[in-house]
Amino acid sequence: MSASASGFDLALLLAEKGLAAALATLGFAVLFNVPRYALPYCALVGALAYALRTALMQGGAGLVLATLLAALLIGLLSTALAQRFAVSVTLFAVGPAIPLVPGSYAYKAVLGVVKVANASGLEGHGDLLLAALDDGIRATVTVLFLSLGIALPGLVWTALWRGR
Amino acid sequence: MALPGSDNDALTMNVPVPRSEPASLSAMVDVLVQAGSLLLQHGADAGRVEASLQQMEQGLGIDRIDAVVMSKTILLTATRQDAHHTRIARVPMVGVNMNALSDVEQLLGRFQQGQVTPEQLRQALQHIAALPHHYPRDVHVAATGMACAAFCQLFGGDWAALIITGVASAAAAWVRMELNRRRMNYFMVVLLTALVASLVAGSALWLSQTPQSALTAAVLLLVPGVPLINASIDLLRGYISAGLARAATSLMVFLGIALGLGVVLRLLEVRL
Fold first, then answer.
1. B residues 62-91 near A, CB within 8 Å?
2. How close does chain A come to B153, measured CA to CA in Å?
3. What is the interface pTM, i.e. ipTM, of the complex?
């Protein structure tokens, strides 16, 4: 989709990606044995966070910055929900975080490293290495910022609460 | 619940009743280790486990709790006056279970507020450890298929790719459950599951316009999302050894995914 897409197209794209992210979140929340009452909230948080990341990246933000802001949204919403239901933040944060995990970058990076090790001769090595390095760096830094964003609102909340 | 050692029994009967407190230091350490193990094995990060354990000092009447939490081990020393007791516990990994985590944390919270006696705490922890998973196996398999199909949509797959991804990852989820039940080595489980997922997803080459999206999404059920996030949270909060161990485990899992997928890509002569 081009950057000059109309507002309607963008809204449609965000709704589509948000819905898919909600289903992905829901599936993983079930795998993680999240109690039934929390499932709709998880799906909603997952949809909002993924839609935010998609919107930011459509607006030209990079993967890492967009993921950080989406993760902050997850952190904020799940901290609020955790206060409301008097449970721990992870209950609401873990499911929505999964669609933001750069899983495919990570195994493509490893696959790339295996290809480099397997390649005969030196020609073409540079491209393979560069691609693997690119995927690997992207995956590592994105995961770091993802967890930072999720943890930050909770840490700030605890600090404020302790300060009182 | 009726407790064998509650005060009413002690008043009405003259036989010596085993009192719930003051318990021996070793019994307290056992309770602490059980609480910590439940948290760690169901997906809590090391910092959270240590914090939860250290908060129990007052409630148990212990002067000092020193806990070191690593990726699969808890070392714990409880000190009361001049006596101390230490346990090293190996913690088997059982997979992410948010319900058990939140049950344990709420229980520890009520214990700190004095609503739960140490004996009740011990029994409640055993009860949580024995709780079955909320969702039956077929729901688990279907949820995995739905999640990976949704990932396929996020990667721009068409409807055929979505359906193939769903079937492939559901089959892989079932294979993974069966292999885990036979207590196979974790790396072999990842490798074989990735192999199954990508073999089934390979049918997208003939049935879909976007086969790459199906092959990429079908193995995503294996991505160690929670260990990865916990690894970086541990590293961020200064629990370096736990964080590095989790990161290394995740890296091995990615290697297993890449090898399983790579074999199939090589067989089918596809480039991702």
1. none
2. 7
3. 0.88
